[in-house]
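Q: You know discrete backbone vocabularies at least as well as I do. I have my own habits and do not want them to colour yours. No explanation is needed for now; the record alone will do.
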Amino acid sequence: MPPVGSSLTITARHESWALREAFVISRGAKIAADVVVVEISDGLHVGRGEAVPYGRYGETVESVLGEIQSSVKCIASHAELTRHLKPGAAMNALDCAFWDLESKRTNIPVWQQAGLPRPIRKITAFTLSLDAPETMAAKATAVPHLSLLKLKLGGDGDESRMRAVRRARPDAQLIVDANEAWTPETIAGLMDVAAQCGITLIEQPLPANQDGILSTLPHPVPICADESVHTADDIQSLLGLYDAINVKLDKTGGLTGALQLVTEARKRELKIMIGSMVATSLAVAPAMLLAPYAEWIDLDGPLLLARDREYGLRIEDGVVDPPDRALWG
């Protein structure tokens, strides 16, 4: 992208958006989506980006705000981000804000600027938080209009969780996400259970530093890397271990890095999931532009909120529409 010039005002702030109910995974629970919003103004137009600090990698709201504040004096254009920031939430918010600003200045949608296919509607996974098997089964039954469900797992009791949800929703396509909670001792048995339950995809079953064992095990269900993949530089190390990758802009450092990761993954014939953290539609909108390349998308963050922001994504019966340009891009 061409530089936007040096007379920029860049601001960043923390926003907290209440959830409908607690969101629980193997590493803990949250009751709000705490996001960092960046705005970049050239005096006439304002571009926005939203990111979620990734606690798994030591990020906090305070650290991300500090990273942005310490780098903005060095940044006069989009191209300079990679010189001053590493991939993560801070770079994501800034990168997406620059894309949005350029779109507003030129009146050209981001998908056209980036050379992407025209945005499409696509079914998103809907996440069921980690809970007792009967509770997760009841929550699956409560959303009969949603055809793609993602089960958060946690290790002990996961066989019962998978079987209970499958009994409750024999019609649904199911993805399971262990968030690194399985072990080398339990993974083979749990993968067999997943196959018996007709699970479509297993996401990050093992800790990222223990996933070498995946090369020695049969994959009766495809396995997707999440915590084990951040940027395009990671693809080589995943070959022979994983069948798919989860692309998240908070890991890649924004849409720019995500495009590079998707391109490299497609070259290596890895299937693609597009994911996001629990956030508002402003964070999800850039990720939706990658939906044409994805086998699955997991962009249900706005559905988990008690209230989304203005011009939020339209999601009906689990189908997400492309973002309105009044929101982003």
The two ends are 14 Å apart (CA to CA). The chain has two domains: 9-109, 122-320. The chain has twelve helices and 14 strands.
